[in-house]
Hints:
Blueprint (H helix, E strand, L loop, with lengths): L1 E4 L3 E9 L2 E7 L10 E10 L8 E3 L7 E5 L3 E5 L3 H7 L1 E8 L3 E14 L2 E8 L33
Bound molecules: manganese (II) ion.
Amino acid sequence: MQEHHASRLHWDFRLEIAGTLKSWAVPKGPSLDPAAKRLAVQVPDHALSYMNFEGVLPEGTYGAGRVYRWDAGRFLPEGDPAAGWRDGSLRFRLEGSRLRGLWRLFKMKGREEGGRALWLLQKLPDDFAVPRHEADTVGELKKPKKASKKRATKKK
Ligand code: MN
């Protein structure tokens, strides 16, 4: 999973399925709280070699901005992940440093955004669940634009 400081901060979730990296952009980042279902926008597959990419996508290219490796580890699917991908329903165990335990990822029927299928990423209850968890950021967040400095008024 990568933390991507593009025009909007998001996390890119990638799973190795059928020899490629199936990929989703998660605007709010993953949550370890089973009560939180996080929107995961399906984005194009990436080559396996991209799994550990970290660096800067230059200005003028798609997704321009800095990419940090946020988490990596083993992906242990329940059942055949290629069938799960096709059917829009995946259940799996993660053994990463930040994301662990049981998860599911399922497609919202008939929902899309700009031609991209919308899925939800959800932690399933187990010992790795953390109520009200929010993803941390490893990169320095872009500072909000400073308000123009107030002109000092001369005291009379
Ligand atoms: Mn991205």
